């Protein structure tokens, strides 16, 4: 995959004694797998959780052909492994974020837990693909906090979803068809929480992946480096292969728009067309008639009672 350019960088930052982030990648016949994880739960346990997440995801995903089902299963395995380790008394509170990009050229699949992020730079425009699983991000989506307030809120580092925190993982899945020259950025909140989107866009637009990743980490440190910093930059080839895939994607994703995937009991059976609006529930006229009669009888009784002299 000579035309697939990428770079991975991670740094402890300037305020943390140890790096609890982890990054990893594996090249595959169909493209590649890239993972960033941000551990939590203490210096030792956070580091272990992030490393377990990256190791488990890469081991599972590079061993089989890509699909939304395989990606979800990989996250479930990582969650189970970290959750089991977290049951030990010395590992209480252990967990990690994880954002994973699977390139199945000419498609991309993304899975996400926590507040690490995935961005897409396409034709000079930067798009945030993931939604943060954090207390402040949820309040912003509810309209209770502004984005500016969220940046300085004292609970901005409280995440609401992490691998290893619960027996079952809650994973966001996305899919899209790639365009030539697309650039992906995966990063921990030590980068996205410090640098503005316009800075990310300018660096990704003007530098190749290796230099872009180094510059982004350096800029985060110049702005104080308050947390561990990780960045993975991936530029897809200008010439993309064509062909069908054994899995289906929604029509919008097949046309190039990022689309959230909702997998049920049959993860491979994803819709290939825009979903029809849900049908309106059928009215049960028998129940409606009984309710109307009951209201009429009660009204007649009350009218007779209050109508007495």
TrEMBL record:
Q: What are the protein's GO molecular function terms?
A: protein serine/threonine phosphatase activity
Instruction: Please indicate if the UniProt record lists Cytoplasm as a keyword.
Output: no
Give its E.C. classification number: 3.1.3.16
**PPM-type phosphatase domain sequence ranges:** 5-236
Top-level division of the source organism's lineage: Bacteria
Report the CDD domains cross-referenced here. PP2Cc
Q: Which InterPro entries match?
A: PP2C (IPR015655), PPM-type-like_dom_sf (IPR036457), PPM-type_phosphatase-like_dom (IPR001932)
Q: Does the keyword Metal-binding apply?
A: no
Which EC class does it fall in? hydrolase
PROSITE patterns per the UniProt record, alphabetical:
PPM_2 (PS51746)
Keywords attached to this Swiss-Prot or TrEMBL record, sorted alphabetically, are:
Hydrolase, Membrane, Transmembrane, Transmembrane helix
Transmembrane spans:
288-307
Q: Which Gene3D superfamilies match?
A: PPM-type phosphatase domain
Database matches in PANTHER family: PROTEIN PHOSPHATASE
The entry's protein name is PP2C family protein-serine/threonine phosphatase
Instruction: Tell me what organism the protein belongs to.
Output: Thermus composti
């Amino acid at each position: 995959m000579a035309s697939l350019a990428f770079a991975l960088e991670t740094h402890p930052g300037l305020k943390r004694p140890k790096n609890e982030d982890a990054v990893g990648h594996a090249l595959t016949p169909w493209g590649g797998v890239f993972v960033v994880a941000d551990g939590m739960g203490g210096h030792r346990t956070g580091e272990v959780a992030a490393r377990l997440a990256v190791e488990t995801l890469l081991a599972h995903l590079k061993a089989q052909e890509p699909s939304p089902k395989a990606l979800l299963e990989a996250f479930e395995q990582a969650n189970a492994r970290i959750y089991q380790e977290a049951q030990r008394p010395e590992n209480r509170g252990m967990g990690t974020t994880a954002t994973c990009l699977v390139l199945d050229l000419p498609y991309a699949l993304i899975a996400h837990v926590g507040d690490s992020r995935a961005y897409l730079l396409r034709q000079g425009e930067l798009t945030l693909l993931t939604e943060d699983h954090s207390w402040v991000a949820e309040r912003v989506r509810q309209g209770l906090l502004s984005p500016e307030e969220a940046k300085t809120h004292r609970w901005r580092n409280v995440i609401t979803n992490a691998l290893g925190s619960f027996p079952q993982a809650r994973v966001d899945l996305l899919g899209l068809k790639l365009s030539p020259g697309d650039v992906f950025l995966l990063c921990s909140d030590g980068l996205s929480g410090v640098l503005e989107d316009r800075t990310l866009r300018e660096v990704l637009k003007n530098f190749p992946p290796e230099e872009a990743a180094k510059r982004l980490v350096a800029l985060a440190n110049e702005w104080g480096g308050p947390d561990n910093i990780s960045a993975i930059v991936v530029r897809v080839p200008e010439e993309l292969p064509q062909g069908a895939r054994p899995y289906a994607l929604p029509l919008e994703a097949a046309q190039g728009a990022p689309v959230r995937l909702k997998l049920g009991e049959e993860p491979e059976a994803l819709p290939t067309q825009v979903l029809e609006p849900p049908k309106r529930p059928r009215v049960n006229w028998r129940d409606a008639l009984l309710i109307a009669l009951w209201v009429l009888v009660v009204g007649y009784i009350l009218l007779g009672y209050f109508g007495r002299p």
